[in-house]
Design goal:
The chain is of the alpha+beta class. It has 21 helices and 18 strands. The strands form 5 sheets. Strands 15-14-11-18-16-17 form a 6-stranded mixed β-sheet, sandwiched between helices. The protein starts with 11 loop residues before the first helix and ends with a strand.
């Protein structure tokens, strides 16, 4: 992050000048505006956040993941014109939980989910209530990570909130609190390399913390009445202009209606605590497909594609009243998209099913050949959202679903989706790279009928392989004792840098040597979409010469970023 005027918090004098009666209390309308400002500010700086990557590889995606997560919340706020702070934050949180992508996005969604708890029951908030909500946000963000790592977004959020809350007094306003919050958030961000050695070695600050800073900076700018570049685009993010000319007086309803609603369960109609949304799910199965239905406290979120939305509304009103209803003609949506076929009907219910994430047409095809029921497109730089996983779970339609994220930055989103899914059990197999996922999927066998035993078999298979990546470097660096020049080809395993060479084949062979290919029996090389044929041929020839006892197979993976991915067994 460049330490220039754009990014440094305003002075206390500037903040004091902005303190007025208008920001003594924060209501829902102002908070929604602040969220849009935060989203616009992050969008303007997302690429800078992406580039704060420990490894000098063109796969940084933290800025994009946080941006899309927050914009998922912004989209959920469209059409809401409430001044009730609790209602607005709940709606925002639901959108962010479903739209969360990558570890940073999931942590961000959990931070706002915690804030939502802090605002519960409050139509507006003063500085003290806002401070409590921020503390709840930090608490839930930490709880969302099994082993919290300091020097990350978690530290930046915690230290900034602790400082800001410690300075709250009877004269504090929303603006003065944010002034303190932003100042300490900036300072904490600059300290992250002193806490996390990997950041110091790479010469960068924490990317997730930087993303959070930009979001809160956008909040603060809205409080001060400042203009933010791209604010109008954010405000219109979920309100595209549609062309209805494709459906006229003689058109035939082919695709049905995309029906979405929020149902507020009513005590007068149902026992809310005991209510199971499976009742609605079973009914929806008789009317349509693409079903999502889950309960958050006393609110049910529902999505279905159906020819009879009126039946959906009538059935749901047995249990409560609608907060929002959206019914869209999918024939119109169809004409504006690249979809050429009607969505497939749900598959027959079965005991076990699988969902895997794949980046590259070849890898996706291979997973399907190995028996994966649903493939979610995505990987590094293209992290799928929790909503994407929920759609895959619906497609699979199984009592127990095993999920293979195949990327460490996707595990948390998969787990968040698993928590939201209520139509069966979901087990996330924590495959943090392609090789581990490939090994686990290759061992797939459901004959035992024991979900725990099956899951352990997958984990045992993952322990048998090592995955190495080859990529071009985008900057100079010094990592793990390896000197890297921009443009070099680097080879690494997990977070450990292994080699850096001017030539891609030399780097690939060097990586195989470092991972102990001499003592292994099989290497599967997944070939990237832009890898040159002469490099593939040269690699095969040198590998046969250097490792004569090693079986060496190539698969046209079609993945981006990495010309070669090696799975060594």
């Amino acid at each position: 992050m460049n330490q220039n005027e754009k990014n440094v918090p305003l002075t206390e004098a500037q903040a004091a000048a902005a303190d007025t009666e208008n920001n003594t209390y924060l209501d829902g309308e102002m908070f929604a505006n602040m969220v849009r400002g935060g989203a616009a500010q992050l969008r303007s700086n997302a690429e800078e956040v992406n580039n704060l990557n420990v490894f000098p590889v063109p796969d940084g995606d933290t800025g994009d993941n946080m941006r899309m997560t927050l914009e998922g919340g912004v989209a959920a706020l469209e059409g809401i014109r409430s001044a009730n702070l609790a209602d607005v934050t709940k709606k925002l949180s639901q959108g962010m939980l479903l739209g969360a992508r990558g570890n940073s996005g999931v942590i961000l969604s959990q931070f706002f989910a915690g804030m939502t708890k802090g605002f519960s029951g409050h139509t507006s908030a003063d500085a003290k209530v806002l401070g409590i909500a921020l503390q709840e946000g930090v608490k839930q963000a930490y709880a969302s990570v099994i082993t919290p790592t300091e020097g990350t977004i978690l530290t930046v959020a915690r230290e900034a909130v602790e400082y800001a809350v410690s300075r709250i007094n009877d004269r504090s306003t929303i603006t003065s609190l944010f002034s303190d919050l932003i100042k300490e958030m900036y300072n904490s961000l600059q300290r992250t390399p002193d806490i996390l050695a990997a950041l110091k070695e790479a010469g960068v600050i924490d990317s997730g913390g930087a993303g959070l800073f930009y979001i809160m900076q956008g909040f603060y700018k809205i409080l001060l009445g400042e203009e933010i570049d791209g604010f109008g685009e954010i405000s219109a993010i979920a309100a595209p202009v549609q062309d209805f000319s494709s459906f006229g007086p003689d058109s035939e309803m082919t695709y049905g209606y995309c029906t979405e609603l929020l149902l507020q369960l009513q005590n007068a109609k149902v026992d809310i605590d005991a209510f199971d949304p499976a009742v609605i799910i079973e009914y929806l199965k008789t009317l349509g497909d693409s079903i999502v239905c889950f309960k958050t406290e006393s609110i049910v979120k529902l999505h279905v594609h159906t020819l009879t939305p009126e039946k959906v509304l009538g059935f749901c009103r047995q249990y409560g009243e609608f907060l929002t209803v959206k019914i869209e003609n999918m024939s119109v949506q169809h004409s504006e998209s690249t979809v050429e076929e009607k969505p497939a009907p749900p598959k027959k219910r079965k005991d076990f099913g699988t969902v895997a994430v794949a980046s590259g047409a070849g890898i996706e095809a291979l997973f399907c050949q190995l028996g994966v029921d649903a493939v979610v497109a995505g990987g590094q730089t293209q992290n799928p959202s929790a909503q994407d996983f929920l759609a895959a779970f619906r497609e699979v339609n199984a009592d127990h679903i095993f999920v293979f994220p195949n990327n460490g930055n996707i595990v948390m989103a998969a787990k968040q989706a698993a928590q939201l899914w209520e139509d069966g059990e979901v087990t996330v197999i924590e495959s943090k790279d392609l090789g581990k996922g490939y090994a686990a999927i290759s061992s797939m066998n459901f004959q035992s009928g024991d979900a725990e035993l099956i899951a352990q078999t997958f984990r045992d298979a993952m322990d048998m392989v090592t995955t190495g990546y080859v990529s071009p470097s985008i900057r100079d660096a010094q990592l793990n004792g390896v000197t890297i020049s921009c443009g070099d080809y680097i080879g690494f395993v997990g977070k450990e840098m292994m080699v850096s060479e001017k030539d891609i084949v030399t780097a690939a062979i060097g990586l195989l040597e470092r991972v102990g290919a001499d003592d292994m029996y099989l290497v599967t090389a997944f070939i990237g979409c832009d890898t040159k044929e002469e490099d593939i041929a040269a690699l095969q020839e040198l590998a046969a010469e250097r490792f004569p006892d090693l079986e060496f197979y190539t698969v046209e993976g079609g993945q981006e970023v990495y010309p070669f991915i090696f799975v060594v067994e």
